[in-house]
From TrEMBL:
Positions of the STEEP1 domain: 3-127
Family per record: Belongs to the STEEP1 family.
GO terms classed as biological process: endoplasmic reticulum membrane organization; endoplasmic reticulum to Golgi vesicle-mediated transport
The organism of origin for this protein: Aureobasidium pullulans (Black yeast)
Domain of life: Eukaryota
Protein name as it appears in the record: STEEP1 domain-containing protein
Length: 144
């Protein structure tokens, strides 16, 4: 592998649908203190700048209407990203109105997505036969 090539790590919904491809592993991502979700930066496709990180959501459907969540210190607007196969929420985005630099606008802030804890399996875990029922129980979905 040359110095410019990077390994792509892939992650799947608990139903096995591919949902994320990234040059970063989930273990290397920062954790959000509000709810322990993983912070996945998304590339700015409007610029041609080079970056050492790339990530893409695949096979997900983003809600067009936000849900208001109550937190200990107030409220926040979230847009859910659901698996296109089973409709389990695997991630969410926040509304632009919640950030100082975009406070006067609204809509999905598209430079980052927050991954729900326990909702994803790596391709390696799937190949190794990781216990899917244990993962389903972690996120509160009953197995059929």
């Amino acid at each position: 592998m040359s110095s410019t090539e990077q390994t792509i790590h892939t992650y799947h919904c608990i139903c096995t649908q591919l949902v994320i491809a990234s040059t970063s592993t989930l273990d290397s991502l920062k954790t959000r203190t509000a709810d322990s979700s993983l912070i996945l930066p998304l590339p700015d496709l409007s610029t041609t700048s080079t970056t050492t990180h790339y990530a893409s959501l695949a096979n997900t459907v983003a809600d067009t209407k936000p849900v208001i969540i109550r937190l200990e210190d107030g409220f926040e607007k979230r847009y859910a990203h659901k698996c296109s196969r089973c409709e389990v929420t695997v991630a969410y985005s926040l509304d632009r109105s919640q950030f100082e630099d975009t406070k006067t606008s609204s809509g999905v802030k598209q430079d980052v997505v927050y991954l729900i804890p326990g909702g994803l399996l790596s391709t390696e875990d799937m190949k190794a036969g990781k216990d899917m029922d244990a993962e389903i129980t972690k996120v509160g979905v009953k197995a059929a």
